[in-house]
TrEMBL record:
One of its GO terms (biological process) is intraciliary transport. This is Intraflagellar transport protein 57 homolog. It comes from Hemibagrus wyckioides. Keywords: Cell projection, Cilium, Signal. The lineage of its organism: Eukaryota, Metazoa, Chordata, Craniata, Vertebrata. It holds the Pfam family IFT57. It is found in: Cell projection, Cilium.
Length: 133
């Protein structure tokens, strides 16, 4: 996965890079990644063998640098986040609580209505014993 993502990021930078295949030589793949990273201005101060596992600090560094370069090549600009005001959040919480309370009251009312239709067993026994006597 590392080599495929790195290849994709390199192509986003406008460079020609063939997507590595499963049976390609891992040493050649890693060397090609580092060659392109150096050409894009990245500092590589570790041996290529550190990337062969596809995990670890060096792999994260390479992907981070390639992603940064891809964003720069695409002239991506980060915008400031827009946060909702706290007052709106508090109002929505109060409305949510009111809805929950109302729905609970409705549920309790429905449950009470269901129990009104049920006859108590003790009452039924007393009625049957009175009619038998």
């Amino acid at each position: 996965m590392f080599s495929i993502i790195a290849a994709w990021l390199i192509t986003l930078c406008g460079r020609s890079f063939e997507t590595p295949q499963e049976y390609d030589d891992p040493n050649a793949i890693v060397s090609n990644h580092l060659t392109h990273l150096r050409a894009l201005g990245g500092l590589v101060e570790f041996p290529p063998s550190k990337l062969k596992s596809g995990s670890g600090e060096r792999v994260c560094y390479v992907l981070d640098r390639l992603a940064e370069e891809a964003l720069n090549c695409r002239q991506f600009v980060w915008k400031r986040p827009v946060y909702p005001s706290e007052q709106l959040e508090e109002e929505s919480l109060l409305e949510d609580d009111a809805e929950l309370t109302l729905s609970k009251v409705e549920d309790l009312t429905e449950e009470a209505a269901e129990f009104e239709d049920v006859i108590d067993l003790e009452e039924l026994k007393s009625r049957t014993s009175q009619s038998v006597e």
